[in-house]
Write a structure and sequence with these properties.
The chain has seven helices and 18 strands. By secondary structure, the chain is α/β, with parallel strands linked by helices. It folds into two domains: 11-151 and 282-323, Metallo-beta-lactamase, Chain A, CATH 3.60.15.10; 157-277, Rossmann fold (3-Layer(aba) Sandwich). The structure holds zinc ion. Zinc ion is lined by residues 44, 46, 99, 121.
Length: 333
Amino acid sequence: MTAPSPRQSLRGFGVERVGKAMRLRTSPLFLDAPFPTEVCFVSHAHADHIARHGQTIATAPTLRLLEHRLKTSTTALPVPYGKSFKLGGFSLKLLPAGHVLGSAQLLATRDDGKRILYTGDFNPVPALATEAAESARCEVLIIESTFGHPRFRFPPRDDVYAQMRAFARSTISKGGTPVFLAYTLGKSQEAMRVLADEGLPLVAHPSIADICEIYASFGHSIPHRRFSGTIEEGEVLFLPTGPTSQVQSVPKARTAMLSGWALESGARYRFGTDEAFALSDHADFDGLLGYVEATGAKRVLTVHGYAKELAALLRDRGLDAQPFEPPRQMELF
Ligand SMILES: [Zn+2]
């Protein structure tokens, strides 16, 4: 099969490319467009998936998180999981994605019966503090492929939890402060749940504590106090990744990054942390393959990360698979 041309044809997949985004063909509905549109399905509230749209289709927790992150109020009506509704020649249904609180997949059934399933970011392994993902049968699958390479096979989640608990306990026993670095939305709350269940006192950076409040309002309350610059002996600190991290101000800190990329060699060195644990809210390679199989899809569009590699592997298995390719820079040759 030939590689997709720069003017990628997505006709057989039931979607079309508009700039960097995707829209259901013959419908006004965009999927996770990173720019304002008239009507858009927003799978979850991570920054690379959100914008202010005329009409937003999302779950109640995602709408609440969007209000917080975009500093705006919304009049959009939340869509519960599993409830079908009509829009532009499609019957639509949201399914849990298991990625972060409120994350959803979109199952779009055309009037002719063809089913298109868009996963958004998803995690098929049950995790704390989010709904377990569900799969559905479909003809076309549009699947995120962040970890779509065979070198990404995550250890059992309980093993990762055990490593995190052991790291926190041993750091405290040596008089240090365990500091976990993680995304403010999703990963932090899951890790905090693990250590709260261990009976450890938790302290969260304000950007993480704000999201914890929203989790609590949807039934996932996690005991903690808000970080105001000081740490008591025996406490565990959660800070966001990136430049807002204040780890330099914490005496006797031992740091641990929580990320699926911890599987890469040299991860700790690149993160600049003492430890790195492979806690991910995405599917790993086997999870992606298992999911494709469970849906029965014959046509698969891969999006994000190792999209080309996963699509090539699926083509080897006899599927009609392509990576979704955002527009390239102007080609000079
Ligand atoms: Zn995400």
